[in-house]
Amino acid sequence: MHFFLDVALPLPLKDTFTYVITSAEAKCIQPGMRIIVPFGKRKQYTAIALKVHQNPPKAYEPKHIEGIIDRSPVLSTIQLSFLQWISSYYQAPLGLVIRTALPTVMLLESETEIVTHHWDTISAELTKGARLLLDQLPQNSVLTLTQIQQLILVKNPYPILKELAKPGYISLKEEVYAQYKPKTQSEIILHPNMNSDNALKSKLYELSANAKQHKTFLTFLQQRAPVVVSEFSKLETVSPSSLKTLIKHQVLLKQERIIDRLPAKTASDEVLLPLSLSQEEAKNSIDEFWKSKEITLLHGVTGSGKTEIYMHLISEQLAAGKQVLFLVPEIGLTTQLMQRLYRFFGQHLAVYHSKYSPTERAETWEKVNTTNSKSLLVLGARSAVLLPFQDLGLIIIDESHETSYKQYDAAPRYHARDAAMVLGRMHNAKVLLGTATPSIESYRHAKNEKYGLVSLTTRFNKAKMPEISFVDLSKAYQKKQMNGHLAQELIAAVGQTLDAHKQVLLFQNRRGYASFVECSQCAHVPQCQSCDVSLTYHQVNNELRCHYCGYVEPYTPACVACGTITPQTQGLGTQQLEEEVRQLFPLARVARMDLDTTRKKNAHKNLITAFARHEIDILIGTQMITKGLDFEHVTLVGVLSADNFLHFPDFRAHERAFQVLTQVAGRAGRVGDSSKVLIQTFQPKHPVLKYVQEYDYLSFYEQQLIQRDQFAYPPFVRMIRIELRHKNMATLLQAGDWLKKGLHERFSFVLGPAPPPVGRIRNYFILYSLIKLPLDASQTSAKERLEKLLESFAQVGVFKQVKVVTDVDPQ
Ligand code: ADP
Ligand code: ZN
Predict the structure, then answer these.
(1) CA dist list (Å): 594 to 319, 549, 570, 597, 599
(2) pLDDT (tens digit, 9 = 90+) per residue, 155-206?
């Protein structure tokens, strides 16, 4: 009898592959185990076992697997079906989803480069195979897996390599070059020599001759080991020189220990704050809804204390030994939240960040994946939803309206909010969406009682919502009441705030100096060479930059088209705003927070800390300052222009405008003080602005719903976007025509193909088409039809180089 195994290769290939296995292998292989398989020309990959069966593949002669890595599955049944759901829903190859979800360290392949380190001796604890291999490996070098295999003539070196990696004889090259270096701290413990009572007693007796050493040692004994050297040395009863001597004489032992970014804390020593009455009520309704519904939406105004409610819910789950996933839109912007969670949950908290090194991520991955890791709280952005949870009790999706939950730039193009809801159901876990500005989709589900709906309409501690008013820019320009880009009304308000020793946030949604440079004579605007956009002027290096591809060119005052030396900068960037503000308020302490000022590690955190300590009076920033910041002394928020939000060519533009303006306004007056928001605009009567001003989400929602219904947009249809890219415009247009015909034959509601607002990026011309699917139509069959169509598209010779991207539920 013959046995076969279907596996998923960690490659962007649509199909699964079948291999031959022996009956013994058939007995021990379970779905979710890692298997080494040959693939292509003498290459090996780590694949994931999917299914053992007895049906030989028809199209090809299957090869035999090379080996089995695991004794038990690394992907649980739930996890595997979750990844399969992502693959089929978002139309991404399963192998690619697996590659995204698994740490690279776990998916070695022939080309993986391995670094050997230096060693003097080989530990006797290693297995014989490992010692033999180590004997033959050159030290301090880089070898690919294939080279290692040739060197030692072992077909399946994986288990041995795994063994050698642990004590650090070897590591993956990727890890060595990872930017992150583990943080270490020096600690002291009692030297093993002192482990018996007798030894300790006689040492104390001996030391009593030396007062300083005696005192230092006694102090040490009163502490709970391990003792952190830097803190210990500061104690009054400790003499640093005596400490040195004690270490030298082997009374104490000094060791370096790798610590997480978050210092290890053995127990959380702080208790949760008691909830206010309305928070308590909200929490009770959430609990009540969860009895009958999987998902509840917590719609709470900014500053209503949602985070505190989350923490109470989390703490209950941890107490019950469950795992909790806390999703945030961007982990880099959650310094404040991270600290708050850490204070209460201490060692239960694991932070998962795509910028951490592969090893670190692998560590968290394994931590989550062990069945006995109870009471774990994982704080992470989008990709944390792909972690292999074992006993998930609760998922919190904070700021659930944020678009950064959707991965748009690479497959799998999944929406972490939507995927989290599916994951929640698979684990039988509860799901809470929290936001002050729900997406129209989420709110509709809540209204239709598909989700529970809990509202918090007042701020914590009765803090007042800031009063929002508008500055009519057309009037201000007419009456010459502008000073650069700031209206006198806004300038006056900033002045008053500074006089009252309060803080100001100024929001301008564009970084750089000016959006573009325009020649005052011929109106020439410098463009990016490879994208269809004008370049942004950055004053710092006096250069022009493309915000799409990063292209940079030096700025020349003379117009390249006509030579006139009077270019005009147009539009306002945060850099120029900063300059104007500094001139207007020379005594104020001004800082700027945007992508350019927060590139360096910790820069964001440092800015936040400085602002929180009131070392900054005016903070100028992009979208970044709208996100979840909680500062006590901000009583004025200024928005330099609301107009670009209102006019963005997208059906969600108004939803975004409402969200951004409400969120940025929500940074003001979070503690007691009455506060103000001033929004500059040419359209002070715009309906969206009125809803923002009145904090009237409900009317805004109803108005949006009418428009979405009228123009057939979500939540009334589902959408799939097909993107075509090619360097040659003619070929692309031809491809567009081909596809248009195919789409119209198969779907009743298709837009495009047409070029998007920026029609060329990095020298690739782009076409978008949009398929709208009625809610009652089967999504699965629609996706199958689409897949078939795209397969035949790929068969057309001339279109071989056309890149096709499918984006399900585009944002
Ligand atoms: P949201 O997340 O809804 O915008 P936060 O959770 O940040 O609001 O709460 C706003 C402010 O109120 C924070 O400064 C927070 O520390 C404070 N706060 C909220 N709930 C409580 C509570 N129960 N006890 C004390 N302070 C609270
Ligand atoms: Zn460009």
Answers:
(1) 39, 18, 19, 5, 9
(2) 667 778 778 877 778 876 654 433 334 456 788 888 888 878 888 888 888 8
Longest dimension (CA), the chain: 96
**Which tens digit of pLDDT belongs to each residue from 341-375?**
888 888 888 888 877 777 777 778 888 887 666 78
Q: Is 455 exposed, middle or buried (CB count within 10 Å of its CB: 0-12, 13-18, 19+)? A: middle
Q: Which helix (H) or strand (E) holds 466?
A: none
CA 461 to ligand 1: nearest atom: 12
For residue 494, give Cα distances in angstroms to 392, 591, 602, 615: 48, 15, 28, 16
User: What pLDDT does residue 52 have?
Assistant: 96
The span from the CA of 356 to the CA of 599, in Å, is 15
- Whose C-alpha lies nearest to ligand 1, atom 6? 305
- Is the shortest distance between the CB of 434 and ligand 1 below 6 Å? no
Rounded Cα distance between 740 and 719, Å, is: 16
Contacts of 317 (CB under 8 A, 6+ apart): 323, 324, 393, 394
User: Which residue's C-alpha comes closest to atom 4 of ligand 1?
Assistant: 303
Q: How far is ligand 1, taken at its centre, from the CA of residue 283, in Å?
A: 14
Q: Which atom of ligand 1 is nearest to the CA of 666?
A: 4
Distance CA 745, CA 255 (A): 71
Contacts of 31 (CB under 8 A, 6+ apart): 49, 50, 51, 73, 75, 77, 80
User: Under DSSP, is residue 70 helix (H, G, I), strand (E, B) or coil?
Assistant: coil
Measured distance CA(189)–CA(187) in Å, rounded:
7
DSSP category for residue 673: S
Q: Is the CB of 358 under 6 A from ligand 1?
A: no
Any idea which ligand is nearest the CA of 549?
2
Distances from the Cα of 118 to the Cα of 130, 134, 138, 139, 283, angstroms: 16, 11, 9, 5, 56
Nearest to 168 by CA among 116, 130, 132: 116
Question: How would you classify the pairing of strands 452-456 and 323-327?
Answer: unpaired
Q: Whole-model pTM?
A: 0.80
Measured from the CB, is residue 460 less than 6 Å from ligand 1?
yes
Distance 770 CA to ligand 2 centre (A): 25
Site to substitute for ligand 1 among 272, 276, 279, 307, most atoms within 8 A of C-beta: 307
- In this prediction, the residues of the chain whose per-residue pLDDT falls under 50 are 175-182, 260-267
Query: What is the number of other CB atoms lying within 10 angstroms of the CB of residue 737?
Result: 12
| Protein residue whose Cα sits closest to atom 20 of ligand 1 | 305
CA distance 785 to 581: 56
Query: Looking at the CA of 339, which ligand is closest?
Result: 1
CB-count exposure of residue 170 (10 Å: 0-12, 13-18, 19+): buried
Q: Is the CB of 306 under 6 A from ligand 1?
A: yes
- Cβ 337 under 6 angstroms from ligand 1: no
Both structure tokens of 88: 């089929």
E strand or H helix at 283:
helix 277-292
Query: Does the CB atom of residue 279 touch ligand 1 within 6 A?
Result: yes
d(CA 83, CA 8): 11
Q: Which of 785, 783, 776 is nearest to 809 (CA)?
A: 783
Nearest to 200 by CA among 185, 179, 220, 183: 220
pLDDT at 371: 65
- Which atom of ligand 1 lies nearest, measured to the CA of 304? 3
Q: Find out whether the beta carbon of 669 lies less than 6 Å from any atom of ligand 1.
A: no
Beta carbon of 307 within 6 Å of any ligand 1 atom: yes
Burial class of 256 by CB neighbour count within 10 A (0 to 12, 13 to 18, 19+): exposed
Burial of 287 (0-12, 13-18, 19+ CB in 10 A): middle
